[in-house]
Amino acid sequence: MGVQKKTRKFAQVKRAIKKHDDRAKKDNNAPKQDKAKGDEVVRAIPQAPSNMFFAANTALGPPYHVLVDTNFVSHSIRAKTDMLKSMMDLLYAKCIPTFTDCTIAELEKLGDKFRLALRVAKDPRWARVRCDHPGTYADDCLVDRITKHRIYIVATNDKDLVRRIRKIPGVPIMKVARAKYVIERLPDHFDAGVIGLTTALRIQETLNRNQSIHLIARDFPNTTSLNYASPWAGAHYRPVPGSTPQAVREETQAKETYRYLKQLASSDVSSGVAVVEGIEHLENPPAEYLDEQSVRESYGHLDGFRRLGRDECPAGVRWGVRYDTVAINSPVY
């Protein structure tokens, strides 16, 4: 009797074809299918507002409209600061705190813990902005509003919201820090000249790392235009009276510049700055020069300031003053 042969059974596996096999090649004769238009990625570049000049927003100006966030109210209460007074002390101008419906609704949802903040937010002195969008998320509401209307300063201490606002050019950010209000990226402008540049430099030395000064000019030193002053021209300090919030703010900055230049003239004779006698004669003075209060606030900080009598003025001069001013040799300075 023969012996039965036992064959070994192997596991069946899936057979793989080689990558060069004809069956793995793409059929070039197959009809091509057009991509659906809906799947195409469209690159959208947002249009910059016409009031934006480089990084400065020329639409911002007193009275300042300040959009207030929920946590900014809480930080103000914790720091025991008066909201309106602190804003005006910071900006040297009239301020209008503004609350949206979403901000009020968010404070109402937070319950009794924020009832004092809600009472402050509902103060009848503040402006109220109506919201017509669904939902009550304040952060999205504020970002959407300042993107469409760049006429606001946003007051918030929310780090995430600050990060979003910093991506929108031309929108300053107000915060509560060390029991006082501070502001980021508020554009400022100064009249052309070496004195205006000195004012900008003095302010820049007091700013923190998140703030900066933008110097904007129509004509630069490499131009030959008659609108640009000669690089060899001199300069002297001369106040300009005014009663508008912007004029009052510039007077405050100019007084600091005058003190700095006067100190520089006395401490360093090689600086190109010298104290000299300044005399002004006006035949047809504007209304601001005839206002004694306005003149006193503009000229009162100057050494040797006094009004000139009629016998001290030339014929036809209706207004005259005398004071100690600073003259600058621009190339040396």
UniProtKB/TrEMBL annotation:
Example GO molecular function: RNA nuclease activity
Q: Listed GO cellular component terms?
A: small-subunit processome
**Chain ranges passing through the membrane:** none
> Start and end of every PIN domain?
64-163
Question: PANTHER family this protein is in?
Answer: RRNA-PROCESSING PROTEIN UTP23 HOMOLOG
**Family statement:** Belongs to the UTP23/FCF1 family. FCF1 subfamily.
- What is the protein name for this chain? PIN domain-containing protein
**What's the source species for this entry?**
Aspergillus nomiae NRRL (strain ATCC 15546 / NRRL 13137 / CBS 260.88 / M93)
